[in-house]
């Protein structure tokens, strides 16, 4: 059972008065990031589908939705269900749905949302078809194409065409297009290498589209790209949509390859111990994800995080060591996984709490 914090912030509170650790989302930064991404992508003629896996919070999704995205993507079924509960109708489940229980859930979800699901296996497509028929629904299906990540997807070309033909013939499914995601390139630090590899993958995806169309199947959607590669996907004719998510809130690792987007996500922590040249914060790996590298301290660029323990972050100070009780904001190295560690976030603007949003999908893996 999850218990609410006895010191959960209230709207109108001053950020300086909040208990620690506290997850913060700066709405001014979010709004700037969203405006920048939407303008840039649409200027290149592609749709922007915001990936909810980075947000996990329907309050934040509703806030982003006010800017008019072209739908949302989800990584897992629970995220797609949460989006539908929040009133989102155009939902891409950018993953495969396997197993009787999840297939039934997906088919039921299609009753209240215009759902798109990815497939990369003919038998799984048949199982999804059977579930849709049993529930009296129709599901749009994308064939996922492996464009270099070596995770999910069929090879580009003939294998994708064959699976598309199988899907198109199945009742309860509507073949809708293709997905190709280059997740292995998102944080590649060398821009030219990231660009070249991402363009090659997007070209393979677009070429597969042409082969599918030559086989007589219309292709409504070709989607891919992320925060680190969206503009390369958008540059290839035949790709119609990009699906970035981390750009909304960002993190210290992504910011190194995408400095045009600000870090809206931070964990406010307090100094609990100090010594010459070093201080310790009251937030550790239970509150700050470290799987993509080392967090950073906001406003103290010379400080260096030495390590994270479960309840502590140990920092080498560059200059004056902050006093015990003084607050610092930690910029996580992975925003998606940090959102997954918290049950709620304080949405702040101008140093005050504007809203407190539950993170409904944190801790979920279904």
Automatic annotation (TrEMBL):
Tagged with keyword NADP: no
Gene3D superfamilies (UniProt xref): Alanine racemase, D-serine dehydratase-like domain
Source species, domain of life: Bacteria
Family annotation (InterPro entries): Ala_racemase_N, D-amino_acid_metab_enzyme, D-ser_dehydrat-like_dom, D-ser_dehydrat-like_sf, PLP-binding_barrel
Keywords: Lyase
Matches recorded under CDD domains: PLPDE_III_LS_D-TA
GO function term, MF aspect, one: D-serine ammonia-lyase activity
Keyword Nucleotide-binding: no
SUPFAM superfamilies named in the record: PLP-binding barrel
GO terms for biological process, alphabetical: D-serine catabolic process
Family of this protein: Belongs to the DSD1 family.
Protein name: Alanine racemase
Gene source species: Gemmata obscuriglobus
């Amino acid at each position: 059972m999850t218990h609410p914090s006895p010191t959960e912030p209230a709207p109108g509170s001053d950020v300086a008065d909040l208990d620690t650790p506290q997850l913060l989302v700066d709405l001014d930064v979010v709004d700037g990031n969203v405006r920048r991404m939407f303008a840039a992508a649409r200027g290149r003629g592609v749709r922007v589908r915001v990936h909810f896996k980075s947000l996990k919070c329907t309050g934040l999704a509703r806030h982003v939705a006010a800017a008019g995205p072209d739908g949302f993507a989800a990584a897992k079924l629970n995220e797609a269900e949460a989006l539908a509960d929040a009133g989102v109708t155009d939902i891409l489940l950018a993953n495969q749905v396997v197993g009787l229980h999840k297939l039934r859930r997906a088919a039921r979800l299609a009753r209240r949302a215009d759902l798109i699901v990815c497939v990369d296996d003919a038998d799984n497509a048949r199982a999804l078809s059977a579930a849709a028929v049993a529930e009296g629904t129709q599901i749009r299906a994308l064939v996922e194409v492996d464009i270099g990540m070596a995770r999910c997807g069929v090879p580009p070309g003939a294998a994708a065409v064959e699976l598309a033909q199988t899907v198109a013939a199945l009742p309860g499914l509507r073949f809708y297009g293709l997905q190709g995601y280059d997740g292995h390139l998102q944080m590649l630090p060398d821009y030219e290498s990231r660009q070249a590899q991402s363009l090659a993958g997007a070209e393979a995806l677009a070429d597969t589209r042409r082969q599918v169309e030559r086989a007589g199947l219309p292709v409504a959607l070709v989607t891919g790209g992320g925060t680190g590669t969206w503009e390369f996907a958008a540059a290839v004719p035949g790709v119609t949509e990009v699906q970035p998510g981390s750009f909304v809130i960002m993190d210290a690792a992504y910011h190194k390859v995408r400095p045009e987007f600000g870090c809206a996500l931070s964990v406010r922590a307090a100094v609990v111990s100090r010594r010459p040249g070093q201080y310790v914060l009251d937030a550790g790996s239970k509150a700050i994800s470290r799987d993509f590298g080392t967090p950073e301290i906001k406003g103290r660029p010379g400080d260096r995080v030495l390590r994270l323990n479960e309840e502590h972050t140990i920092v080498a100070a560059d200059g004056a060591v902050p006093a015990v009780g003084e607050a610092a904001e930690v910029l996580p190295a992975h925003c998606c996984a940090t959102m997954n560690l918290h049950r709620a976030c304080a949405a702040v603007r101008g140093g005050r709490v504007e809203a407190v949003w539950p993170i409904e999908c944190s801790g979920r893996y279904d």
